[in-house]
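Components:
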Amino acid sequence: MIVNMEKKFDTIWINGAFTTCEPDHPFIQNGAMAVTNGKIAWIGNMVDLQSTPELLSHHVKDLQGRCVTPGLIDCHTHLIYGGNRAHEFELRLQGASYEEIARANGGIQSTVNATRSLSEEMLFEQSANRLQSLMQSGVTTIEIKSGYGLDWPNELKMLRVAKRLEETFSIKIFKTFLAAHTFPSEYKNNQEKYVDLICEEMIPIVAESSLADAVDVFCEKIAFNITQTERIFKTAKKYGLAIKCHAEQLSNTGSAALAAKYQALSADHLEYASLESIKTMAESYTVAVLLPGAFYYLREKKLPPIELLRQYHVPIAIASDSNPGTSPILSLTLILNMACTLFGLTPIEALHGVTRNAAKALGIEKTHGTLSVGKNADFAVWNVNNPIELIYYIGNNPLYCTSRSQNIVE
Ligand SMILES: [Zn+2]
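Structure:
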């Protein structure tokens, strides 16, 4: 009599080269990974499988030696926007600075105007194209910020588009409320009133309606000052929202230390961060999100303090900062290359920057960012044998497929 042994797994992926991004067992050269109910149920060497893959699992997929990494996490983007800023790119090539363009009503305000003028449908369509490009570079989780509406109807429109993108593409989208991106032209001469609007009206609704997971502030001399930033952080905390900060991209404002003081998930950019800021970030486990795309586009000279971040064990994440003005980049593998060539990260540091540390920057490290038992089965399969090849090539797309656990009922 043939006994029909119950199969343990939904799907098992065999004959793969796994880069787990776990510190204890980072690579499994000839490995297998089993998935059940959208979670990783087993991962290890092929020789350690208890039975044949066919007896263990309903479905068997042969990776034929391909490399598998955790699904890439792009933890800082401004992907939803109207129009583009190609003209500004041209001006900057002629020598105009970021600040000069911002002061001349270019910059963020021009994207605000373009975003406000688009219908929700058009905004969705334009953003969906960009999202699909990033997903084709292995992204399975993405953070998207609002911040090109700067009034309630248009900020809400952006957050609704983010939700619809999440549902349409079955991808996890971490939504960040960034009304404090810049002062809209109607509040240029009454900045405190705009901070009132953010703190007294917008953040309470965002929190109560679960429209976003975090609140972000662009703290800079051309944007929100340190006092205004602190008021917004306090309000976000009061309403139970996580905090992120555009900190010290163009000058040393002390905002990275302030963000860390409020237990921010991350402080992002950091080119001008001081030793004091980095020490405070280390104490509060605030992740440093570095954005080499903006550094490249703005042709910045000042590098973020990579050595200090290493020395104080501040986790380093890397993101595309995909946005129309300073980083119109839609490939996270290209960003990995920039992190190594421009910032001097090692390829493995860069890879951890878009996996385990990017998960920390979104507060989802318990479920995302590494390949280990119990984590979501979010992973990318690549037509390469070694993960360094992902970073080494520019201009090809080595992605074979991705698996996303989003929408699987737990
Ligand atoms: Zn940004």
